[in-house]
Structure formats: C-alpha cells, structure tokens
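Two proteins were folded this term; both appear here.
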Amino acid sequence: MPDQSLPEVRTPEAARTAPPSPEPSSPEGFTRRRLLGTAGATGLVLGAAGAAGGYAAAPAQATPLSSIGAGKAMFHVKHQPGITQGLQARGHLIAFDLAAGAGRKEAAALLRRWSETARRLMAGEAAPHDDTDIARDAGPSSLTVTFGFGHSFFARTGLEKQRPVALDPLPDFSSDQLDTSRSNGDLWVQIGADDALVAFHALRAIQKDAGSAAKVRWQMNGFNRTPGATAHPMTARNLMGQVDGTRNPKPAESDFERRIFVPESGTKDPAWMANGSYAVVRRIRMLLDDWEKLSTDAQEQVIGRRKADGAPLTGGDETTEMDLEKTDANGDLVVPLNAHARITRPDQNGGAAMLRRPFSFHDGIDPDGTPDAGLLFVCWQADPLRGFVTVQRKLDRGDALSAFVRHESSGLYAVPGGAAEGGYVGQALLEG
C-alpha cells in the first residue's frame, strides 16, 4: 500500500459544494429541484396533492438538500470522473465479462447505455428506464461512474491491434495470493458517491443495463470517512488507524497531468487513450489481528510516520519533508530502511508516482474470528510499468508492512478519456 492518497475532504468548489439557491416555484407550488427530475424523466407532473411518475415531489416545505447531497460531478469532462475527485464515502467496484457471442457491436451498444445512465444519475436524475427509486429522495451526492477496459476485452471484440502495450499483465509479486475469479475482467466500472443509497442505485442501474451483453465477473464494496465528519479537512485514515496518503500527487503540481494521464500525442499509447489513465485495482487484506498486537511505537517503525498525526518520525508535521539520513543517539536511522513511507517515496523510485484513490472494505468475520477487512487499492497513472510496478517491486524486496497485508485480487484497466457531449465512453476505440 504505497504511502499516497487523496485527502478525505475534497477541495471546495462553489459550484459543487454550496447549497443550491432557491428557484422560482411553479404554479402548483413545486420547484424543479423539489421534483428531483420528475418532469424530465416522465414529461408528466400531477397536482400538488397528486403524485408523479419517476421521482416524486417532496413536500412544499421540504428542507433543502445539504451540501453533501447537492454535490455534483460532471460526466462530460476531459478526464473521466472518479479519478481526480476526493475520496468518496461509499464505493462499488464491479467487473464484467462479455457474454458468449457478444463482440464489438454489442460492446459499443453497452457503453452507450452505460454512459447515458451515468450521465443522468450523476446529474441527480432518474435512470433512463426501469428506475428502481432507491435514490428517489437524494441529490447527486457527488456520484461518479468510471469505465475501463481489461486486457481480455480486445481479443473478444477483435480489437487486438488497439490494445495498449501498457495493458500487458502485471508481474507476479511475493505478497500475491490472488483469487483469479475476483481478478481482471473484460470491462471494469468504478462507482463512488457520498451517500450509500445513491452509490447502490448506480450499481444496480449499471448491472441492469448490462442485460444479455455482459455478465458480472466480480463485485466489491468499499467505504471511506464521510466528508465533513472531521473538524477540519485532513488526510484519511485506513483500517490500521494510520494517516494514509500524505504524499499523493496533487492536481496543482506542474507534472501532475504528465504522470497521471496519457497525453494527446507523442506517446506509445493508441490515440483512443488520449486524456485517459491506467487503473490498477488490488484487494489488499489487512491482517489486523497481527497488526493490533504491535505497540504504537512498533507500528510507527513499520510505517515511518507517527500514528497520531502522520508526521515523519524525523519530526515536524504531516507535510514536513522526511529526513532519510537522520540518526538517533545510538547512530541508528530514525526512519528504518524497510519503513513503508521510506520505500514508497517517489525520489526512492526514480520519480514513480501514482494517484491513489482507495476504499476500505469489511466483508465480515471468518469462522475463527478474523476480520475480512482491508483496502480496495485503486491507483491511477499514465504508465503502470513506471508507476505501480516500479513501486510494488521495491516493496516486494523488503517492506516492513508486507508482513501485515496480503494481496488477494488484481486487475489492470485502460480507462479512456471522458466522453464528448452527445457521445459515450470508449467511442473512439469502438467506432474508430
């Protein structure tokens, strides 16, 4: 688990976080927002005492949506949503395999359906058809839906010549105990939201849209701390209780785009991947019973940072540069050579960097009382060989944290740039 992550609370943006301003009421006493998209979904609005198809009207004196419910991410953007946004409170990861006999034509129709569903749900509207009403009372809640293609997708659709070299299978690592039934897949979808019902609503819609074209290969559920749960914005903690992600790349950094996204030209990647990124997805089980037997001091030696505030053991606060050469009174390095935070530093890995955007998971308790819990690790980079693979190989050679984690599933996906207005994700690949 490289020491990089997004802050738990996203950077405020007035258009996304401020409560919506009042809108003029209709003659019936309803506002467009209170109707939550009813008219747009059905073209029908009944009287004030009546009901409407699709999303029903809220009472006339309903409390306005909170800033969490009103948050909205855009679908038609340069880079797909769900990459640079902050951590979201609830997430679902799901992979599909195309059905037998389904090919390029069926895949294009599926991505067209999925894109339209994602666009509508992210706007706080009902699904285009057969909406389940799960999110009827909620706003968009910063919903994001992200689509990617696995290595096997290209052979199944006759598009092998368009498969990026960067999608070559990941190498084996010593900490891998991979379940192949929960790894890889032709198509991958990431769903995130700040409300659990909104996220599940999107998951159900995406699954239903797959129809006979694709079947679920695997699906995983995750969570993070809800934005606003802390007194002030701060880096998230993982299930080990550690501040996790101090050194994540920031969009404001001058080289952020180059390290995270595929450029529009001058690259070995196919043209359809312009403005896209590569996602590595790993289900990393944390051996919490073993970890929690360690003293706080011992845990800090494993990580290389203070547990209380995420500051390096060499002093300062969370953002203070770590002094890798500092020694104690006995001449020993203050930050051990095998400390996780030392090993994962970009300057210790030839500048390799990943944008981590994970979810924690807890899938119950084993018969022996062991929690099945850990991290749904999702990282983004322009080149997985220079990003994830470089860092994971270094971790494989002696990371102190390796004794307390186990990689149980894995996937690598090509995630194209955002869909153009009126278009769908992957259109340049499937219609090129």
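Next, the second protein.
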Amino acid sequence: MSKSNSLTPLKMLLFSFHATNTIILSYLPLYLKYKGLNGTEIGWVLAIGPLASIFAQPFWGYMSDKYKTVKTMIQICIIGLLVFSVIFFQMDTLIAILVMGAIFYFFVTPIGALGDSLAQRRADDLGVSFGAIRMWGSVGFATSSLIIGEVLTRVGIQYMIIPFLFFGFIALLVTFKLTDVKVESEPVKLSDVTAIIKNKPFVIFLLFIMFLTITHRANDSFMGLYITQLGGSEGLVGLAWFVGVLTEALVFATAGFWFKKYHPLVFIIVAGIIYSIRWFLYAAVDNPMHIIGLQFMHGLTFGVFYLAAFNYVSRLIPKLLQSTGHLIFFATFFGLSGIIGSLAGGALIDTAGGATLYFGMGSLALVGTILLTIYHILPYGKEVFVHRKSK
C-alpha cells in the first residue's frame, strides 16, 4: 500500500472530526443564547468542556500508552460523542446542560489530541510532514464552518445537532480502516507519568504558553458572540471561521517547506507577537466585516504556534510517553486555558463588551510572548531540545 493510501483513513478522520468540532466551537455559544442563557452562563457551559478535558486528556492518553493503541481509544471516544451529544442537546436547564456537558466533553475532547498524536507518529514512521496530514483537520473545519453557517442561518440554530451527528458517524466509520501505531516497549506505568510532571522545562513551557492559549481559547468561545454584538449573522460567524481555518490549512500544508529552518521556540515567539497585534486590532474594529478581513491572521497565529509547540513538546518527552505527554499539552492548551478563557471572557463580554475583552487578550498575549522570549534566551529550552534531538 502506498504512503498516501495508508494515510487516507487518518486524513478522513481528521476532516470529519474537525467538521463536528466546528459546529460545537462556532455555534454552541449562539445555540445556548437561543436557549435563553446569558453571557456569564454561556461562559460556565463553555468552561465545562475544558474542565472535563483536564481529566479526560491525561486519562485517555494514559490508556492509549498502557494498551498500546490509539485507534481503539479514538473509537470508544467517538461512540461516546454520538451517544451523549443526543442527550446533551435535549437539556434545557443550566444545571442539566452543565452535567450532561461534562460527560459529553469527557469523550469529545481527547479525540483531536489522539488523532494528532496518531498523525505525528505516522508522519515519523513514513517520513512525511505532520502538517500535510493535520491540514485535513483544518480543511474539514473550514468546509463545515462555511456550509453549516449558511444552513443554520436559513433553518435555525436549534437544528445544529443534525449536521453534528452526520459528521460524527462518518468519523466513526473511517476509524475501522485506520492503521494503528506500534509501540515496541513495556506497558506504561503511573510512575512513568510522574517523570513528565517532574520535567521542569516541560512544565515551565506549559505555564508560559498559557498566556497565549488563554487568549486563543477566549476567542474560540466568544468571537461568534462578538460578531453578533457588532451586528453580524450566523452566516458571517461561519465565514469568519472559514477564512481563519483556510489560512491555518495553508500553514499546515506548507509546513514541510518552512518549519525546519529555525528552532520551534522562534516560531512560537513570532506567533505570540502576531497574536498580540491580532487581538488589539479586533478590539479596535466596529464592523463585523473587519473581523472577517483580519481572520487571515488565525493561520499565522494558531497554525504556526500549534505546529511549533506540538513539535517542541514531542522533543521534550520520551517516545514511550508520547500520547500521555501530548494529552497533557492538550489539557493545558484546550483545558486549563479554556476554563480561564471561558469564565473570565464570559464575565468580561457581559459587563464591559467585546472590545474590552479583546484589548485584555492582546495585553495577556504580549506578556506571554515576553516570558517565552526569556525562556528561549535562558539555557532551559535549547539544552533540552538539543539533548533530545541527539538521542
């Protein structure tokens, strides 16, 4: 079987899962608003996902390393996604939405991380670019955001469960054709996991990137509400995500050409600078079309940052614990940062409006960029990177 053929099911999985992810990320805040929740309450519901992921990411990563299978864990999680999404969307009261949301997210949040972990390992095995595989997730996200945005503008936000289940079933079907990864080592033990927690450069790196990832996650949660605050429709929210994720896909697709030229921390710092500029510009606009025009910066921020950070984390942790390490990174990026971004962002957008929220995000990203620059200058990052690379 050729390289490209053996990767087709994996690319299809990333495409279809990220298509479902778009629907939750882009439209759940608007759906909750339709259900009668205010900004602060929406923030609480959006924080449940990241809270669940803090437990779910390391748990499923550990199970994946322990039983030496990524494929089976992805299948279990997708079945959970399909079953619990149906129940989650039936809920009407805030408490019921929060409880079912926690169970739903426990299965949903690890799928992206496990898919990317599988893609990273398959890329290494086949000697191809991780970005060339990962871009299919971005293409799925972009396609879904554009089409579903238009559909929901016409039929109503209350029907968002239908396209969600459609893409979810496709994701499940393609998993049966996935090629799993082989890990030739002893089963991972809990004591091995503590070695990751004691890895100082890894922990400091995660702490510093949170200044950037909190702002990224706050934007994920509230860009849709900000666009509607500025007078935009569901269709415009979809268009904004489409433009952003299209540039992200281009960054991933071309990673093979530009990524190896510098140390990953250099790319992370550059992405941090652009993040700061991006949020300050969002704070200054007064027309939803300006947000769409600026969304090309999504690829230059998230696309570059994610590739570089994922690569750097892969170098910091031993091969035996790759899934666990990747999922701890995800738990920080999409979990802890998501909780802070959702709760603080929800309260801010409610009390002070979207412009103040984005100005605060720009300031936070600037602090994070300065801290990461210091981290890069100090021997921490470089020494560990060279040490791992030479092994």
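The mean pLDDT is 86. The chain has 16 helices and no strands. These notes refer to the second protein only.
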